[in-house]
Amino acid sequence: MGKITILDSTLRDGGYENDFSFTAEDTSFLCKNLEEAGVEFIEVGHGQSMGARAHPQYAGSGVVTDEEYMLAAKRSLKRAKFGMFFCPGLSTMEHIDLAVRHGMDFIRVGINVTDVQHSEPYIRRAKEAGLFVFTNYMKSYVLGPEELACRVQLSEEYGADVVYLVDSAGCMVPDDMRRYFSAIRKLSTIKLGFHGHDSLGLAVANSLAAAEEGFEFVDGTLQGLGRSGGNAPTEVLAAVLRKAGRDTGVDFLKLLALARKFVEPRFGERGRRPLDVAAGFAGFHSSFLPLIMECAKQYGVDPAVLIIEVSKKERVRVDRNLVEQVAKSITA
Q: CDD domains, from UniProt (predicted)?
């Protein structure tokens, strides 16, 4: 299986958690740190779409303009690509022009899966402008696999680079990934992505299933921030995919630290606690956590790193001598 790419949507979908009030400074900070953690695709901007602030339905929401989000992302990134969500009806052709002027790399055209034909002019315009185009099929589950696969053919014809299966309600199960992938591959070879919400607690399981089937992209947000039941936590996705032997190029330990620094002060502790993720990755029993915390503080090491390194040596009988020995080796 090839590389699986994680796209982080904290600054877009996560905005549902704070009334779309991420600032330009938040955008700069998070873009820089996500890039340093190895995330290659970063979605920014108003959670609803480009152009949402000017629409009567969302007037007054958000704290900065689309242009300010673009400028903040552009000046903070050296390698990673950034993009924004484009919803026909809220977004216009002028927003595509704005994106190009500010060096945006990709655009995500969000369309209800029943209305795919309405996305054609926007996809074609974005491709002509040189943007990488994702087409996100909102509420994908309302069509069966065969019907949806026919829509994928249309998006491929329009010029989309990737089609996303979107579990907007968080109602899908892992076997759905197999059924939709199989139907799509009978008609198209276009790259595929999966964006899962976590209403049933299956966003990570569904994302893993999608990756195992052959989807090339999966989405996440730090600590699962997002609309409704939230999203797949980016840091957990990175850990699970690494444990499954899939290359993402993302350092989940850096994401755990970033989530602690960025998410917890703003939203409190939520989702999976970072050390629980590290323990799950390493197969480390939680009864040893007090010892880990004590030694991590004593020797000035990251407890998540200490958990992983101790687990490489022992997972059944963990004692102080071992933990201190490993902590010293980390600081050496």
A: DRE_TIM_HOA
Asked whether residue 137 falls in the same domain as residue 238, the answer is yes
Region of 81 please: left (phi>0), alpha (psi -120 to 50) or beta.
beta
pTM of the model: 0.92
Q: By the 8 A CB rule, do 279 and 289 touch? A: yes
- Rounded to an integer, the average pLDDT of 121-143 is 97
Would you mind telling me the total number of residues written for the chain in this entry?
332
* Domain match, 254 and 119 both: yes
- Domain termination residue (choose one: 228, 247, 271): 271
Q: Which of 226, 244, 271 is the last residue of a domain?
A: 271
Measured CA to CA, the distance from residue 218 to residue 229 in angstroms comes to 17
Where in the sequence is the domain holding 80, given as residue range(s)?
A: 5-271
DSSP tag of 81: E
Do 235 and 138 fall within a single domain?
Answer: yes
Q: What is the pLDDT of residues 164-208, one digit of tens each?
A: 999 999 999 999 999 999 999 999 999 999 999 999 999 999 999
Same domain, 233 and 323: no
Alpha-carbon span 232 to 249, nearest angstrom: 18
Tokens representing residue 327 in the block = 């902590």
Residue 100 has pLDDT above 80, yes or no: yes
d(CA 25, CA 246): 33
Whole-number Å distance between alpha carbons of 40 and 253: 16
Token pair recorded at residue 320: 């102080």
Query: Is the domain of 151 the same as that of 284?
Result: no
**Average pLDDT over every residue of 241-245:** 95
Angle of helix 93-101 relative to helix 66-76, nearest 10 degrees?
Answer: 30
**Tokens for 139?**
């509420």
Give the model's pLDDT for residue 15. Answer: 94
Closest of 195, 207, 191 to residue 248, by C-alpha:
207
CB atoms within 10 A of CB 140: 24
